[in-house]
Amino acid sequence: MKTTINDIAKAANVAKSTVSKVLNDAPSISEATKQKVRAIIKELQYTPSSIATQLARQSSMNIGFIMSFDRKDDFLNPFFYSLLGGAESVTFEHQYELTIANIYDRNDDFMNRYVYSRKLDGMLINPSVMNKTIVEELERLAFPYVIVGQPAENYGVTWVDIDNNAGGSMAANHLLQQGYSRIAFLGSNPQDAISHNRLTGYQNVVSPQGSDQYNPYIRLGEANEDNGYRMMIDLLDMSSPPDSVICVNNFVAFGALKAALNRGVKVPQQLGIVTFDNYPLAPYTTPAITALDIDTFNLGVLATNVLFDKIDQCASDQLSYTLNPELIVRESTCKNG
Known about the structure:
Layout (H helix, E strand, L loop, with lengths): L4 H8 L3 H8 L7 H13 L6 H8 L4 E6 L4 H5 L1 H16 L3 E6 L7 H7 L5 E4 L6 H10 L3 E4 L10 E4 L1 H14 L5 E5 L5 H14 L11 E3 L4 H12 L7 E4 L2 H13 L9 E5 L13 E4 L2 H16 L8 E4 L2 E3 L9
Parallel strand pairs: 1-2, 1-3, 3-4, 4-5, 5-11, 6-7, 6-8, 8-9, 9-10
Antiparallel strand pairs: 10-12
């Protein structure tokens, strides 16, 4: 079996990125480490990929943002453009260009079009694009990339994201501090990693430590206004309805608020509402909704800075970077004034 860069890293007890830097004679690596890794490369008769070597020696002065969107709604999401704005601000500072590519239904050829062709020096990648085969090939080539969003599988690669788990806990703790006790959660489909992480943070606060007990106040479904309304009505019809609710996004929260008002439930006196995302609706409803503000612009800045560290071969071996959401308290949870 052909020796890989992973084999070298394991034998030398260093990170794959360190082996890559040694192959490219990066000044950030100590001479002792270089000698150690080079000795193992010689011992294992490892031959670096010619493509990887070419990639290391050429620059396109261009990075890519690679995604796989199949719905018009994905492109209408304001958070997507905020994320791109943060990425572009850093790209501009480095005097690079930013290429935006939607590869939906074209996954098989994006490596040829952007990596093997050397059209990009690095990539920001949406988790939906990634699979084990692509990860292994990018690692083999030592091609710089950062996944924007926590991957569903643990590939052992670099990713950046909002700490949605912490956000779920922040929301639940806020409601408890305001005197609410029966806290519900309206989330997205179970396959949605963002919703899952927000739900996990909520459960860490409202559920007993290590408890597997069924929670009757959790509802999951399509994360839109109509479904938010239906899920909230279902909760309000319970014999012991919740006195507060955490919503996965503004549209679900707006539907939940409509349901409460239509049933004559007073917000915040009888029902507290917290939503993830500050926009587009939370500040403008009546009452205005307490929100966990997700700063996707800074997420784009962080992801692109990490990518350029990789391109410049000065990145650390840290694999995950997260930003905490900010709690903005408004009338929807201030039942005591």
